[in-house]
Amino acid sequence: MRSLAVAGIALVLVVIVLFLGTCGRSEVEAPTTTPTTTSTTSTTSSTTTTTTVDPASLGTLPPVDGIGAPVLDRDSSVTTVGLDTVHFGMTLRAAQLAAGSRFSPASPVGECYLVTPDEAPDGISFWVAGGTIERVDIDEPGITTRSGAGIGDSEDRIHDMFGDRIQATALPDGTGNLLAYVPRDESDKDYRVMFQTDGERVVRFWSGKLPWAGMLEPCG
Fold it and tell me: What is the reported pTM?
């Protein structure tokens, strides 16, 4: 009888140990599995929603051979005829040779589109309309006009520099003004240098031939 009692107690102890071991695994493993699944799902969702750019949709430009050293830099200057050696009216190929840099599309290639030089400071974009360069936009500080006017200048300074050659109009959305430099020379009558301001200072500027020089929204 005593042997049977001891065996019975031992059996009960084994059952208790197995039960506690099963409960312990459940409490440790379940929380570990759940966060791993949640984290992976969240990361995948975030990556999918932010990957939206398709550079191939911009199209490609014909290859250009014989391009020399880059010539556009922070010392380049904007005039009524272009940016340094890149002049309005040049073909796309001639402009790339003049800049010493290949251009890449910045908007879908078509009748009118934007390109940026690969070897040049940031903030330069050219308008290609009908196959020729017709405008250049400057969107980053550094490059100025030949007279030294550029981003960051006050409206008063632009008026002081160019006097009555500046025609000022308010932007349609009321966020600032557009100061248009109108050349006096008859040969330049179809060209403009435009300074866009926030009401106090120049935030971007461009030069080009009309009608493209008068457009606020980029072509393409």
Answer: 0.74
